[in-house]
Amino acid sequence: MSEKKKAPEKSRAEQKLAAFHDEDNIDKSYDFQLLSRLWPFIKPHARYVVLSLLALVAVAGINLLRPILMGKVVAHAGDKAADLLLRDGAILAGLVVLSQFVSFAQIYSMQLAGAMSMADLRRHVFHFLQGLSMRFYDKTPVGRLTTRCTNDVDAVSELFAFGVFNAVGDLLMLVGIVVAMLLLDWQLSLIAFAALPVVGALVTWVRRGGKRAYRDIRTKTARLNAFLSEQVGGIAVVQAYGREEQMAREFDGINVQFRDANKRAIFFEAVLDAAIEMVSTLCVASVLWWVGVQKLGSRPISFAMVVTFTQYLRQFFEPVSMLTQRYTVLQSALSGAERIFQLLDETDVEQVVAAESSASAVADEGIALDGIHFGYKPNVPVLRDVTLLARRGEKLALVGATGAGKSTVTQLVLRLYQPSAGQVRVLGKDVRSYSPQELRRQFAVVPQDVFLFQGTVLSNIAMGDASPDPERAQAALVRIGALEMIERRGGLQAIVDERGSNFSAGERQLISFARAVYREAPILILDEATASVDSDTEARLQKALDAVMKDRTALVIAHRLSTIQAADRIVVFHKGRVVEQGRHEELLAHDGVYARLYRLQFAAKNPHSAENPQPVAVG
């Protein structure tokens, strides 16, 4: 017999990627602590919870009366007392109807409290996500965060939807039923209670296995969502490289793990339900056997008593069964709560600090970096001792090879990342002394990869404005010469699909320019802003940008050096350091890194004239 073929071992890179997507297991159990942490979200809606619990007590009381009335109805039927039979039958029917009305009020109020509480929790998680630093997002898959706001909150909402808080009523029912059974016949009651140790052992076993299973479900759900988010976002690349089958195999592997986790949870739930039903049936059979024994003995038991007692016995196991089912739901909900509060315990959030003013700050300082060291990963520096200054109203261009650190400067200025050493200042103040919102109101940013949100052209141009101004948006479009293009697409109310997929790259870039003009911020950042437009559009935009940048501090990053020759000053980066500064003509005369970059670009455009490059006209 041939040996079973072993799966190939994963490479180190594949292991790292799997670790990035997978989550750590949370082995510690703090069930009551988790429930207490949910209270702040429930407290504003506590009146509905109180109403529900009062209704629950009323339902429990009504249900405790039903077996007694049923026993009386049976007794009156045996005595052929028609008037008493009719009276008690009518009372029993009225109690059943009343119980249903009170149950409706109880369920409605509890689920209303749950819906509003979970809306508050979801809102809190979303706002918390917006305050986390970019470093956190660098190390966390998007699908995992989506799971926190959706699947995990939905799991917690099951506490209300499936009546987990009704366990209070179940416990009251149990206590009432035990008292009633003992008052009716303590010997029969002891026979029924003999099964409780078996039930307790089953619940303990299911509790331990079920908790692990539901925790695993939450982990695999996040992994599945992360993979799906990545694949849908990169579907064009997957199809372009013909990787559909490999991606399908990877998805199957994740899906099988998710299925197996659900199978384990279903197993524990089914075992408990079947066991409770079996124990309940055996208890009823034991009671009937004991009744038969007593019938032959000296203490006969009436048929009405048997009916009343067996009804109580059935009701006794109903709350026991419901408690076990609700405990299963509770485990799923607490697993979701674990993940949510693990996220909310994240400390990598943006904070405002009381930063001291720097002695090196100048009066008309726009943007300043002073001795900056930075790396996205430990021991992998991106910027090394970078110092630069852009005065207010100055147009500063950053150039250099790919990976030299140009875009990183803008990330630090916007305080999306914190430098490991040095100080970043905006308008003479340390960026850490601003709140994130206050700091970013000083900037209008035009990135290379434009992100448009689903909505309208107007809502995208007026990003950050609670009340978009159509006239102001139209003026911004006129200023950059894009009004005609937008009107062809349907005007300011034209629909923008998800990520702006119904607009071309150049059109998205023009909307991004209009967004920056609309913002009217004192500092403008252009990060490869014209990389996605053709030469004619770029020339038209260049004229518009001259007007847009007037009286503004501008930080311009560009690979096409022809677009930044008119800058007040050009800063050249090389391997994370500032190696040259000056105007275009000065840097060409210096014949350093900038001159080499310029000659390379000019040679690529005019290979026959590479030996005698001439300046490229701008305007």
How many angstroms separate the termini? 79 Å
Number of strands: 12
Based on CA inertia axes, which overall geometry fits?
elongated
Tell me which oligomeric state these chains represent: single chain
Instruction: Give the biggest beta sheet.
Output: 6 strands, mixed
Query: Pairing-aware structural class of the strands and helices?
Result: alpha/beta
Low confidence ranges = 1-8, 25-30, 608-619
- Mean pLDDT, to the nearest integer, reads 78
Q: Give Rg in angstroms.
A: 36 Å
Our estimate of the beta-strand percent is: 5-15%
Count of individual helical segments: 21
The strand line-up of the biggest sheet is 6-9-10-3-11-12
Helix content: 55-70%
Note down, in words, how this protein is organized.
The structure is a single chain. The protein is an alpha/beta fold and 619 residues long. It contains 21 helices and twelve strands. It has helices at 12-21, 31-42, 46-79, 82-130, 134-138, 142-161, 167-184, 186-193, 196-233, 235-240, 244-296, 303-344, 406-413, 436-440, 457-461, 470-480, 483-488, 505-519, 535-548, 584-590, 593-605; strands at 365-374, 383-391, 395-400, 421-426, 429-430, 443-446, 455-456, 495-496, 523-527, 553-557, 569-574, 577-582. The strands form three sheets. Strands 6-9-10-3-11-12 form a six-stranded mixed β-sheet, sandwiched between helices. A hairpin with a 2-residue loop joins strand 4 (421-426) and strand 5 (429-430). The longest helix is centred in the middle third of the chain and has 53 residues, at 244-296. It is elongated and about 120 Å long. The N and C termini lie far apart (79 Å). Residues 1-8, 25-30 and 608-619 have low confidence and may be disordered.
